[in-house]
Amino acid sequence: MGTVTSFDPVAEHERARAALGGVIPRLVRLLRDVPDAGAASGVPEWTVGDVGAHLAAVYLGYCSLVSADGAVEWDGLLPSGEVSFGERIAAVNARSVDLFGGEGRARPGDVVAERGGAFLRITEGLAPDTPVAVPWYGATVSLATMTGLLLSESLVHGLDVARGAGLPWSIGPDEAALAIGQSMPTMMALALDEEKARGVGIAFDLRIKGGPRLAVVVEDGAMTVTRDAPPRGYDCRITAAPVAFLLVAFRRTPIWKAIASGRMLAGGRRPWLATRLGELVATP
């Protein structure tokens, strides 16, 4: 069944912070080099300028959660009533592109540079399990999860901008593995589509090459995601290169393409269940 590995959460969080610190200036340069903000991006219905505005809103929002400076009034941005997690995030994402106007929208790189630097300064030295309430998730997550989310947003949306602007952008395997390890153990369970998961019982052994190994267990409308779980029986084993898994998880690469290229492999007693994992986790 494989050996049980272990990781140091403090050391990994510091590595994730260092990776984020390296990605931010690359992202700022990319946003400043965009020749045409009106060009189509890697996100359906969003222009390159829309993605830039969304990134500026993301950095503003995440920084506001750890600092009273520049706090955001969330009541006007969050959907009202009982909505699913996916619907909640989709609504906030749609409103994020209009959060900035004028100079703020014209220069998203400046917002990312200022707020990204502030986020890293304010959170320096804080424990990775420091709880942070996130209004747009309707949940409290750890600082490590926030760091991983900000890293993944930067990597994936950087690719969206680059694809539309015709500019270079790279995602390193170490960066992707850190984003996955820091954020996905929490976010996969939080984003579970409970309706689709009702009556389902599947145990996935998810192995990210050079990164985390996750036991992802779906049981009748609930999901648990455990790092370095003790050996157990699994229905499906998924082995994936970190960049491939990150892009499949964010719907930027179809899973069939990742499998066909050998960057994702499915095994175990029920390998055909690999595609169910993506169907069960909502990604707006």
Describe the fold and architecture.
The chain is of the alpha+beta class and 284 residues long. 50% of the residues lie in helices and 13% in strands. It is built from 11 helices and 7 strands. The strands form 2 sheets. A 5-stranded mixed beta sheet has the order 5-4-3-6-7. The longest helix has 25 residues, at 9-33. The protein is globular and about 55 Å long. The chain starts with 8 loop residues before the first helix and ends with a helix. The model has no long low-confidence stretch (mean pLDDT 90).
Termini separation comes to 34 Å
Portion of residues within helices: 40-55%
Question: Total number of helical segments?
Answer: 11
How many beta-strand runs? 7
Poorly predicted segments: none
Give me the oligomer status: single chain
Q: What's the pLDDT, averaged over the residues?
A: 90
What is the CA-atom radius of gyration, in angstroms? 18 Å
Structure at a glance:
The protein is of the alpha+beta class. Helices cover 50% and strands 13% of the residues.
Salient structural properties:
284 residues; alpha+beta; two-stranded antiparallel sheet; 7 strands; 50% helix
List the helices and strands and how they pair.
Blueprint: H1 9-33, H2 48-66, H3 85-96, H4 103-106, H5 108-123, E1 131-134, E2 139-142, H6 143-165, H7 173-190, H8 194-197, E3 201-208, E4 213-219, E5 222-227, E6 236-240, H9 242-249, H10 255-260, E7 264-267, H11 274-280
Parallel strand pairs: 3-6
Antiparallel strand pairs: 1-2, 3-4, 4-5, 6-7
Helix pairs in contact: 1-5, 1-6, 1-7, 2-5, 2-6, 6-7, 7-9
